[in-house]
Amino acid sequence: MDRPTPQSAGPNRPRHANVEEAPGPAEVLFGDDHREVEPRFGGAAWVERVCLPRWWQLPAAQQPAWPDRAALRDAVSELRRRPALVAARECERLRARLAAVALGEAFLLQAGECAETFAGVRAGSVVATMETVLSMAVMLRQLVGVEPVVVGRMAGQFAKPRSESTELYGDARLPAYRGDAVNDVHPAAAGRRPDPGRLLAAYDSSAVVLRQLRGWADSARPYPVGIGEDVFTSHEALLLDYEAALLRPVPGGVQEYASSGHLLWIGDRTRQLDGAHVGFGRHVANPIAVKLGPTATPAEATALVRRLDPHRQPGRLTFVTRFGADRVRDLLFPIVAAVTESGARVGWVCDPMHGNTRRAASGRKTRRLPDILAEIDGFFEVHRSLGTWPGGLHLEVSGEDVTECVGGGLQEADLGRRYETVCDPRLNPRQCLDLVAGMAEMFGNPWQHRQLPTSA
Ligand code: PEP
Ligand code: MN
Fold it and tell me: Which of 88, 187, 209, 434 could form a disulfide with 408 if both were Cys (CB 3.0 to 4.6 A apart)?
């Protein structure tokens, strides 16, 4: 299937370009009659509660302008009644695995769709994607010698931040596609209206994906030993009405946990220090990741540590860096140096996809495997020079033989054959294995990376 490609977006848009369309605190629902456990009088949690604004009162970037408020209210109250998608104890088990990543004992492989779709879930593509990710994990262990922690970018990845709020198709300027949880990818005005009913469909599709993954993990034999006894999922915590409706109490705790997925991340466009997404991340007990792109500064990174990991709990905070092959060395070094200098111990993960998106001559978005490997190489080099652990990879992949990225036997001229992504170009299974093979070559002996600073 070939989908019309919008003509507007480019790879180097200014960041946070959409802030003006964020509805602002008065118009969002996620604070309304929000039942939150009041901490007991006194203590740091109480001081914070009394002195700081509630997270939902902070400005939220990249929220859809839902036209039908009553429908949004209905969808949110329905979500509040639904069962948790993931359990608090599973999130805690993942946090313990991510602590091993932060401490240099394990390697995170976080991979899956850029944007899951309801149709993709119906077509059952998820098992093929997870199998591709698991074969990478097996190869990583055998060729590179690291202990993989596998986390799917799936079962909740239905919403997208956009650099441009509109897209041009021929003469028609339409609202941008914001993921199946918000509107329809088909370029027609009616379907591009944000529809809150889609939040319920996103929940249902997430539940289907989780059921498939869990059923498959129980039945798949021989299962790669030691990998993925637990099925862990992740997505960008973007739509705060959805995420807030799925907050569930942690027994005996002041925090709540986000029951929509195990690991939630805050995107590069929504990581404002005083924004609602960071406030939300601070509020939840789940492990949290934050994407850091080219505009991120060392001071912002250390401030994010203070906001999101005040107790310096290993596994709580992971930074996913995505600078582009050309700039990774210059931009990553001062950030890792400052965070390490502050005494924090976070997980460092390389997303070599989002800083290396290009337009092919056809106008299609693509990524070149050599650029992807070059960013990984720069990431390793920076961590090697600082004595810190390069803790993982964050990738957009498909289990199908799609033709969206260049390399691994595909040229730009091949991209039209099977270009199916609704958002960013994904690696196909062959490209995934080529990536690990290329990485194994440059990684050398991984344990040479383990000379970690002794100041804890
Ligand atoms: C993404 O992961 O699909 C994404 C939009 O990333 P970023 O926030 O890093 O741009
Ligand atoms: Mn993407």
Answer: 434
Please work out whether the CB of residue 355 comes within 6 Å of at least one atom of ligand 1.
no
Distance 281 CA to ligand 1 centre (A): 17
Is 297 domain-assigned? yes
The encoded tokens of residue 144 equal 């590179």
Q: Are 210 and 234 in contact (CB under 8 A)?
A: no
The reply to whether 27 falls in a domain is: no
Mean pLDDT, 10 residues at a time, the chain of 456 residues = 52 34 46 46 58 81 95 96 96 97 96 98 92 93 89 98 94 96 97 98 98 84 62 97 94 85 98 96 96 98 97 97 98 98 96 98 97 96 95 98 98 98 97 94 60 38
Residue nearest to atom 6 of ligand 1 (CA): 267
Identify residue 323 by its one-letter amino acid code. F
- What residues are paired with 166 via a beta bridge? 175
The CATH number of the domain holding residue 278 is: 3.20.20.70
| DSSP 8-state class, residue 314 | T
Number of domains in the chain: 1
Asked whether the beta carbons of 50 and 39 are under 8 A apart, the reply is no
**319 alpha carbon, distance to own chain's centre:** 11
In a domain, 12, yes or no: no
pTM for this prediction: 0.90
Cα 302 to ligand 2 centre (Å):
25
Report whether residue 267 contacts ligand 1, using a CB cutoff of 6 Å: yes
- The token duo for 393 is 């990879």
* Residue 14 maps to a domain: no
